[in-house]
């Protein structure tokens, strides 16, 4: 007995087409479900995004203005506090803060904290040796910033310190082999011209005019040196620790060991006579303690939240901080910018925007970004 005859190929294809059309009609009648975004999640994202912007601006402007105020107003005893001791106390405060965070992340367990410290400090001597250079540079940089704001008004300092964009770009090109487009090189030239015009303008606030001990040239040298140390240390940090999985807090603890020691030695070498005669905390006041706290806590907070802000907001924060510093300096310190200062500051702002534009042809040509686990951000701000 013969089996069933095979179907005609034409009939098979006809049935398949009918089945597909039936499926299409049935699925077409089913309403499509669109993904619904939670209004609350969008609201939280916006709060984080613009909260980061406000925090960036507040940290950049607040620290500079507070530091300038503290360096032009003597303490209750009529003495000016020692910048070297302030840097030392800031490093100690930052170190203790990071220890507290690591302790909290370990469920407040002493054995867990001890294990983390042993793993990343005692058992990682090579990482610690690599961190000696940036630790030293960051300590020197902090001392230079105090020296700069002792001799420069806050607005001029904010504009001149944008030279760190230039130094970071130069060190990135020489040490990391980054390539830059013609637009970015042009922005660096404009930046240099703008900074030069601001310096030539000679604009200063009332405190600089009243205090003959302030030297604008010394402030300029301090800012340029700080910009160089900032650019080199950031690029060096990125080069030796790229791809590291160590957390931000552990990295700060590692660097804090050297930074505290270096800051203490610096204070003894520079101000041993005054410390022995007047004490370690001479000239300290609530405003000085506020400056130290803002410098210690502010940098860590910005390093954590800066990842939530896109590049446009970062550039806006940098530009807005310069404008806000000029405005507050005019109101609080009787700062009166002349035409040369305004032209130079405008060139600096324009160069910052130009440099921050992404390059389509050179994917490696980007702003230095925040590396996970770094103590300082190499982000150009």
Shape field? globular
Relative strand content: under 5%
Radius of gyration: 28 Å
The percent range for helix content is over 70%
Total of DSSP H or I helical runs spanning 4+ residues: 15
Name the quaternary structure: single chain
User: How are helices and strands ordered from N to C?
Assistant: HHHHHHHHHHHHHHH
Major beta sheet summary: none
| Main structural class | mainly alpha
Terminal CA distance: 89 Å
Q: What does the average pLDDT come to?
A: 78
Compute the number of strand runs.
Answer: 0
Instruction: Pick out the low-confidence regions.
Output: 1-6, 33-37, 362-381
Please provide a written account of the structure.
By secondary structure, the protein is an all-alpha fold. It is 73% helix and 0% strand. It contains 15 helices and no strands. It has helices spanning 9-28, 39-72, 83-105, 110-122, 125-130, 132-151, 154-160, 163-175, 182-201, 206-210, 216-241, 248-278, 286-305, 311-332, 339-356. The longest helix has 34 residues, at 39-72.
Features:
single chain, 381 residues, mainly alpha, 73% helix, disordered N terminus, disordered C terminus
């Amino acid at each position: 007995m013969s089996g069933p005859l095979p179907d005609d190929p034409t009939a098979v294809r006809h049935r398949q087409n009918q089945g597909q059309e039936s499926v299409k009609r049935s699925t077409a009648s089913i309403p499509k479900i669109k993904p619904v975004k939670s209004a609350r999640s969008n609201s939280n994202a916006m709060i984080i995004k613009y909260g980061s912007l406000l925090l960036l601006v507040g940290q950049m402007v607040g620290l500079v203005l507070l530091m300038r105020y503290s360096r032009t107003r003597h303490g209750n005893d009529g003495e000016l506090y020692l910048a070297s001791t302030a840097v030392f106390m800031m490093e100690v405060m930052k170190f203790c803060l990071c220890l507290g965070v690591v302790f909290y992340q370990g469920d407040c367990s002493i054995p867990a904290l001890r294990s983390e410290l042993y793993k990343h400090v005692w058992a990682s001597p090579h990482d610690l040796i690599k961190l000696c250079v940036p630790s030293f540079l960051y300590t020197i940089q902090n001392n230079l910033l105090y020296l700069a704001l002792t001799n420069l008004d806050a607005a001029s300092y904010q504009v001149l310190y944008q030279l760190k964009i230039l130094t970071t770009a130069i060190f990135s090109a020489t040490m990391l082999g980054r390539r830059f487009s013609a637009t970015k090189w042009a922005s660096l030239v404009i930046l240099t011209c703008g900074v030069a015009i601001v310096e030539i303008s000679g604009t200063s606030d009332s405190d600089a005019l009243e205090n003959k001990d302030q030297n604008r040239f010394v402030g300029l040298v301090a800012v340029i040196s700080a910009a160089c140390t900032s650019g080199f240390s950031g690029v060096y940090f990125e080069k030796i620790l790229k791809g590291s999985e160590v957390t931000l807090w552990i990295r700060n603890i590692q660097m804090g060991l050297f930074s505290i020691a270096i800051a203490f030695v610096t204070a003894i070498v520079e101000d041993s006579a005054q410390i022995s005669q007047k004490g370690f905390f001479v000239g300290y006041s609530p405003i000085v303690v506020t400056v130290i706290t803002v410098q210690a806590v502010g940098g860590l907070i910005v390093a954590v939240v800066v990842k939530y802000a896109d590049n446009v907001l970062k550039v806006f924060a940098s530009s807005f901080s310069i404008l806000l510093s000029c405005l507050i300096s005019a109101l609080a310190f009787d700062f009166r910018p002349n035409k040369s200062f305004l032209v130079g500051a405008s060139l600096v702002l324009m160069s910052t925007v130009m440099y921050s534009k992404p390059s389509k042809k050179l994917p490696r040509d980007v702003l230095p970004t925040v590396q996970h686990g770094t103590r300082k951000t190499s982000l150009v701000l």
